[in-house]
Design goal:
- The complex is a heterodimer of chains A (about 70) and B (about 750).
- Chain A has about 70 residues and is α+β, with helices and mostly antiparallel strands.
- Helices cover about 20% and strands about 30% of the residues of chain A.
- Chain A is elongated, with a radius of gyration of 13 Å.
- In chain A, about 30% of the residues are buried.
- Classes of the chains: A alpha+beta (about 70), B alpha/beta (about 750).
- Chains A and B meet through strand 2, strand 3, helix 1 and helix 2 of A and helix 19, strand 16, strand 17, strand 19 and strand 20 of B.
Chain lengths: ~70, ~750
């Protein structure tokens, strides 16, 4: 599966508070209604905590959710 | 939905039925389109409408006797549109158009006899369909009244351009007819323009086919004086010739060939009387335009006029029902009509105003039930409402008790889960008043199951109804007093054998509670859509308001025509923007402050910024300006229900039973105004935020922003992942942003 890159997912000053590590863009698996997407998202390289920005959640991600619900 | 059901629904919607003028015209001229163009002074375009349908249009438009005027819907509101005069104006003033393009030759030769209007029209109709036509006549244009110079010649030239071979000055002995049967594939006789022995020989033609005693010879009926009917005979003959030469049925499917009746309904209730333009001579450009403007542009759209939902999707039920049917038929691919199906308020207004009783509610509810059964209902559509219903039906909110000190109940008060959510104090006061004056009145706090039914979840609705029925039986089957119109309707459907009264009928019988107040200014009485079929309920409420000396005005679309407030059918959940638009339309129904007996109407109208109060605000006054009370948010609604139960147990039954506090409930935080709005828009509860904050505190998993120092945490308690951006201040936590999504992050993310 190819990795989807989303321009909205910039790192925008966030670091992992737990590990004190800068976030890096890395492939992350998202799942909804039995569909899996491999998306490049900001993630803590140490603990793996993934950041989903508001614009992405309410924008493209929401559109995909609706599309899957209507399939 | 089966295809037969689709057909039945489609048949029920009359919006696509043709206008009366078009149906009554023997040639079916689109007079509505013609008038629309004439009203815009687009004479040339209007002429094209006529020329598309009329044979020899230059002649016929000048001679048309306009039978459409007899059925014109405008005739009862001023007088029929003067279609004949408009046609003549157009014929005189528009740019002539070339005759229609002839279809490829069929290789069939047809003999037409007689050069009167019928013969010319028959030749025109046959030639344009690709027949090789020879028109034999003694005089071209025989019997026609005087026409302006050049008109007849121009149309004859058009006929020749269409390929008609005209043999003028022909004598027509009967042998010619017999000869032609050998040389031609069929013949058409203009009976008004041939010798009498021909018509005697052929006999009276069949009314439908115009067929005569001679096979393949068609003839116009004798004695027809109407020009448009003469032209129609030409077209009917052309249709028959076409069928005859193709060897297909001469009779099937010809019902709509001549004038026929239509079912199109056009409401005249709000149409002003406007009389035809009066002028003795020909129309000027202005008078022609003004006369055409009187055309009502007939259509039905009765349901769409009063329903923001039906208007929102740009069409009308006939189109929608097909979209719903197609939606259900899709096996692979995107179902396009899910939003349409889930946006109906299920309020029944369309059925009430429809001349044919079309119910979009029935179509949509059935579709929702099927979607649920087949697992195709989008999860996001009703999930929040169903979670809220589950909460209202949960232990922290439900109650079923006899009045304190009583071991039986003559009545049980059923306020409904939305009234308890929005106005717990009002419910407390109402229950106290009922006990004071009726004695043994028990109390039931439960959802009536309407949200599940609206969401198409029949099994869930039945289970909820079964539980409340059991609780009611355990109370000894008392009479139910319901305050909410939706509860009344739903309980009466679910418990048909139970005596269910409205709180308003009780108050009408026993009188007002002490302390009931009035207001000095008139109020608009809002009937909720649930009271549409309950005139007694509407009357009881008005009687109660009347006793309070409330001066009442009726908003637009009230009573049995009540518009929904935007909550019904869960539209505000499945389509929040539309829900608000619907509420806005309802709120604009009156200038005065609203008073309503449905708390969801109160809250939805209040959400639009319009002042609205519930009748309880007047019966059991608790604040100075109840119409200014904002609609409580989703979190407050839940807390109100919980607090009401606790307060009732404590104050009424003397039990101090506080529920077990969940760990997340101890998390305190403030929100910015923007977050408060986001929480409502995104259906994020205070408890959802508390769960995220607790999870972050316990796990330490969170992000921090280098610039602002704010933290960001996420948590997925069940089906949604919530994100909370917050600041740790000395005074406590302040939440700056919240959002959520349904997608799950695979891996260890909590």
């Amino acid at each position: 599966m190819s990795v989807i890159k989303v321009p909205e997912a910039d790192i925008a000053g966030w670091t992992c508070a737990t590990c004190g590590t800068e976030l890096v863009l890395a492939p992350v698996e998202l799942e909804y209604l039995d569909s899996l997407f491999n998306v490049e998202l900001p993630r803590c390289p140490s603990c793996g905590f993934v950041y989903i920005p508001e614009g992405l959640a309410l924008g493209k991600m929401h559109q995909v959710e609706q599309l899957l619900e209507d399939k | 939905m089966e295809q037969a059901e689709l057909r039945q629904w489609e048949q029920q919607c009359v919006q696509e039925e043709v206008p009366w003028c078009l149906a009554a015209c023997p040639l079916h001229v689109d007079a509505k389109a013609f008038c629309a163009l004439m009203a815009q002074q687009r004479w040339d375009k209007a002429w094209m409408v006529l020329a598309k349908t009329l044979p020899v249009p230059g002649i016929l438009a000048r001679l048309c006797d306009a039978p459409c005027q007899e059925v014109c819907v405008r005739k009862d509101v001023g007088g029929a549109i003067e279609m004949g005069r408009l046609e003549r104006f157009c014929a005189e003033n528009a740019k002539p158009v070339a005759p229609p393009r002839r279809l490829p030759s069929r290789g069939k030769s047809i003999a037409v006899f007689g050069g009167g209007l019928t013969g010319l029209c028959g030749a025109w109709e046959l030639a344009r369909r690709g027949f090789d036509v020879t028109l034999s006549c003694s005089v071209v244009g025989e019997g026609l009244p005087a026409l302006p110079d050049g008109v007849l010649d121009a149309e004859v030239a058009s006929l020749e351009k269409l390929g008609v071979v005209i043999r003028r000055s022909e004598s027509l002995p009967l042998e010619r007819l017999q000869d032609c049967l050998v040389d031609s594939d069929a013949a058409f006789i203009d009976s008004a323009s041939v010798p009498e022995d021909w018509t005697v020989f052929l006999g009276e033609p069949d009314a439908m086919t115009l067929g005569t005693t001679q096979l393949g010879v068609f003839s116009s009926p004798a004695g027809e004086s109407s020009a448009i009917m003469q032209a129609a005979a030409g077209r009917r003959a052309a249709n028959s010739v076409e069928r005859f030469t193709q060897g297909v049925s001469m009779v099937s499917g010809r019902d709509h060939e001549g004038p026929y009746a239509t079912r199109l309904f056009t409401n005249l209730a709000s149409v002003d009387v406007v009389e035809p333009i009066k002028t003795s001579g020909p129309y000027s450009e202005d008078t022609a335009r003004d006369e055409a403007k009187r055309c009502l542009q007939c259509e039905c759209m009765e349901c769409v006029k009063g329903c923001e939902y039906l208007r929102h999707f740009n069409y009308y039920p006939k189109v929608y029902v097909r979209q719903v049917y197609n939606n259900e038929s899709i096996v692979m691919g995107t179902r396009q009509a899910n939003t349409l199906i889930n946006s109906c308020m299920l309020c029944g207004l369309c059925e009430t105003v429809c001349p044919e009783d079309f119910s979009m509610a029935d179509v949509c509810l059935q579709a929702r039930q099927t979607m649920v059964e087949t697992g195709k209902m989008p999860q996001s559509a009703h999930e929040f409402a169903l979670r809220d219903m589950a909460f209202a039906d949960g232990d922290r909110c439900t109650l079923a008790r006899h009045a304190p000190g009583e071991s039986s109940s003559e009545y049980v008060f059923f306020p409904g889960c939305q009234l308890t959510a929005s106005d717990p104090e009002g419910v407390m006061a109402a229950y106290g008043d009922l006990r004071d004056r009726l004695g043994a009145v028990g109390l039931m706090l439960h959802c009536c199951s309407a949200p599940a039914a609206w969401a198409g979840r029949q099994a869930l609705a039945e289970a909820s109804m079964a539980t409340l029925k059991q609780q009611w039986e355990d109370l000894g089957c008392p009479r139910i007093i319901a305050a909410c119109p939706t509860c009344l309707k739903t309980l009466r459907q679910g418990l048909p054998d139970v005596e269910i009264l409205s709180h308003w009928s009780i108050l009408r019988a026993v009188g007002l509670p002490s302390g009931a107040m009035s207001v000095p200014c008139p109020l608009a009485v809002n009937d909720p859509c649930a009271a549409r079929y309950d005139p007694l309920l509407r009357e009881d409420v008005r009687a109660v308001l009347d006793r309070m000396r409330v001066e009442m005005v009726e908003p637009a679309y009230n009573g049995e025509l009540a518009q929904c407030c935007g909550y019904g059918g869960l539209v505000s959940e499945a389509n929040p923007d539309l829900g608000l638009a619907v509420a806005d339309v309802r709120a604009k129904g009156a200038d005065e402050d609203f008073v309503t007996y449905c708390i969801m109407c109160r809250d939805m109208i209040a959400k639009t910024g319009k002042r609205a109060m519930h009748v309880y605000d007047l019966l059991y006054p608790r604040q100075d300006d109840p119409a200014a009370r904002p609609s409580p948010g989703y979190s407050a609604r839940r807390e109100n229900r919980v607090r009401l139960k606790e307060q009732l147990l404590r104050d009424v039954w003397g039990q101090d039973e506080t529920h077990t506090v969940e760990p997340y409930e101890s998390i305190e935080f403030d929100v910015t105004d923007a977050v408060a709005r986001s929480m409502e828009d995104r259906r994020i509860l205070k408890s959802d935020i508390q769960k995220v904050l607790l999870q972050a505190r316990e796990s330490g998993t969170r992000l921090v922003n280098r610039e602002t120092g704010y933290f960001l945490a996420s948590f997925r308690p069940v089906v949604m992942t919530y994100w909370v951006e917050y600041e740790e201040r000395a005074a406590g936590l302040l939440v700056h942003r919240v959002w959520c999504h349904r997608m799950k992050i695979q891996g260890a993310q909590p």
